[in-house]
Specification:
heterodimer; A: mainly alpha; Alpha-Beta Plaits; two-stranded antiparallel sheet; 5 helices; 4 strands; 8% strand; elongated; disordered C terminus; B: alpha/beta; Rossmann fold; 3 domains; six-stranded mixed sheet; 14 helices
Amino acid sequence: MTGILIVLAFTVVIAVLLYYSRGEVPEQEKLVDIIDSLLPQTQCGQCGYPGCKPYADAIVHNHADINQCPPGGRNTIRQLADLLGGEIKPLNPAHGKAGPKRVAFIDEDICIGCVKCIKACPVDAIVGAPEQMHTVITLECTGCELCVAPCPVDCISMLVFVQGGRRVKLGPAMRTSS
Amino acid sequence: MNRELYPFPGGLQIPPHKELSNAKTSLITPLPDSIILPLQQHIGTPAVPLVKTGDKVLKGQIIARADGYVSVPVHASTSGKIIDIGNYTVPDPLGLKAPCIVIEPDGDDVWFEIKPTHDYASIDPKDLQDVIREAGIVGLGGAGFPAHVKLREGTESAVDTLIINAVECEPFISCDDRLIREKPGYIVNGTRMIRHAIQAKHCVIALEADMPEAYAALKELIDDDIDLIQLPVKYPQGGERQLIKVLTGMEVPSGGLPIHIGIVMHNAATAAAAYRAVIRGEPLISRYVTVSGEVNDPRNLQVLLGTPVKHCADQCGYEDKEGQAIILGGPMMGMYVNNMHMPVIKTTNCVLVTSTYNKSPEMPCIRCGQCVDVCPEKLLPQQLFWHAHAKNYDRLREYHLFDCIECGCCSFVCPSNIRLVQYYRKAKRQITQDEQTRSGADHARERFIARNARLAREEQTQNNELLAGSDIGELDKQAFIQAAVERTRAKRAQLGKQENSDDDQE
């Protein structure tokens, strides 16, 4: 009887030790960062969270679903499902529709220089000064659309992003000279 | 000359079908109704147009300048009027349209002012690169890599061997064969010139045993300075990595370049075009194209760049028949195209009309392993197919997908008719695209974090100021403002001094 009790007590101690030594917190923080690295970083908030990192955090801690990111679209959902071992689901239409990448364009004839869009831009992709014309740095724009609503004169439109011509990346396999 | 050869792994013996087109003298193709010149006919950044609609241009005039280092200019192939700058169908596996400059030939074919150089040896190797770049020379073997980049690599590090690749290993294609037979002097002198440009210790011209006439033509012109080597026929021996292995026994490291092991390779036609550009001052505006397969008169043509493919095919008695496929390039690595409206570009070596392409449906992989035996890069095509199918991109990297040269041997032998290479190409494209998106997202994250930090900093400063303000009484207010003004003045004066000293430095 005593023997059994000793073994039992030992087991409990080991179990408790193991539980506390598994380092749950750092693991989860790492996972948040990995998920964050898969998200498109538009910081648009369409997922219902105030940015990509908060959404990643919500996926890990609050069981937020993986199909709430319209800019990432199917590709991001697939990558998240691969990472977290879940199933690939269609994008939740409540959060918006997926589409080609768009960028903001300011109609400079209409812009009154109110700087509201500059304050709204999460990646500082708009340049301008009070009562001076503003413009979007197209290559820095993530297409989050956060600048569209604050504009009092509706001079910002979202245009489909076309990269100049067809750019082919250099790879060793492309360099056969036969 | 006897040289030890080192066979490369895998590969195939396939019927060459060169006899269809290689016996006849090449024809100079008559001027077409319009010349369509894509801004991108090479690997790298597209060229930037220098002309506008309505401009008159002369033959050989630069109509689009190079944009960046890995880029080359585009020249007008004939004299005429620019009738449009816009999107046209180009040779592209997806059938996409791309920006092109369209010229309506005036029929006079008048040359722009050209600057021939009679003695290339008098030119500094570095300047030679610039001449070759300005002439728009790119690798004419198929990939279209700007030639000056390889030359620069050559001048920057020591080159042991220059290899001129005349191994035309794909079936049906005989344009290099024909070029060598008709203009052996260009090849040999071009080889010597490139050797001078990169100061290579050794120099080799390699061709396959089924080109005896070309061999004889070259043999007559070369001395001891160049090794002329005939290789047993085997596909894909003309691949850069394969040919290096065969001739030197060395392997180019995965992800590396030939220059890393002291080798520079150029295609024979590239050497000829470079020589022509330097000695005669003529930029790259035409090339040899093989038209072969199911046409009445298969042969080689000398075609002005920008000539519609249909116009070339018509010269060889092409008739549109049901069930025919048109391939630009060879049957192994070429691209299937839907129509013939696209122009001949710098990398178009062959127009092949065929009805015997693989139409059978794909069946499941039976794991026979034949693809593994023929892969010249010693990859595992089966595993790659598996993971490409599952879109498991991390695993594809582990299995060295990017070492695949897309030679098509695995697809050729597959008893289940699986078009393996198509899966690899698609996966490569997707991975590259994902990577670009990823680096864009990382950049956006950095900017987002930087902005948040800035906002936090601004808020902190504001709070500090408010706190500082609350400490002072009403009476001291004037003094406080005065002090602030003094501070600002002092700061300005200091800044002004700094600027002045900066100016002095400049």
